[in-house]
Write a structure and sequence with these properties.
Layout: H1 11-31, E1 33-36, E2 41-44, H2 47-57, H3 59-77, H4 83-101, H5 109-134, E3 138-143, E4 146-151, H6 154-174, H7 177-209, H8 215-243
Helix pairs in contact: 1-2, 1-3, 2-3, 2-4, 2-8, 3-4, 4-7, 5-6, 5-7, 5-8, 7-8
Length: about 250
Amino acid sequence: MKPLKTGEKNPALTLGLSAISIALVCIATMFFQVYVPATRGFFNIGESMVFLSALLFGPFVGALAGGVGSMLADILLGYPYYAPATLIIKAAEGFLTGFLNGRSPKLSRVKWAALSLSLGLLAGGLLAAVGTLFYSGHIELTLGRMTLTLEIPALFWLALGLIIVLSTSVISLAASPEVGWMILSVTIGGFTMVLGYFIYEMFFIGWLFGIEAYAVAEVPFNIAQMIIGSMVAIPAAKVIRRFFHLSE
């Protein structure tokens, strides 16, 4: 699926789409949050709009929407110590997703299925392993003004990893090569986000802001953000393009 032509050749369109996308990313990020005490960060659903912006409008809009929109949400929600990293990490996520999505190679359906299945096994296995070994316990769930304290057992992560593997297996058998490449694009962009925050929490947040962060604890949440975001963005991008008769 080719994104709309934005960038240097169409600056007015890029600016307008970027402004709208920045607002959508910021709103989506702020709408739902799960506070992660171990890193003083939070789970959110902003990836859905980062991916959607990148898939529809390409790398430039994806980078601006991801970086600026997510950074604004961090500041407004009271996480300013994440804002500098978010600007860079989410911009890279949006750029890579849009860049790769616009460069789909010609591969057979069998190769696409194998690629999608491999990615599902990787994501599901990593989520289950990290969640089970390093993060099973109390979390604070925030929805609007309501805050709940929950206990997450290790079995939750195993079940979630299995669901991801099984669902990806079904998708890999049923999806077209186009969808397979979109899955790969958002997966690479998403894992860039996961790795970026891990590095920031591991080496920089303590040095810059004096915050002790258990970086591994947020990895499963960031992987979940990536997966949920892709599950929303990929179908939405296809529906929007079909509804507005945009070129594939």
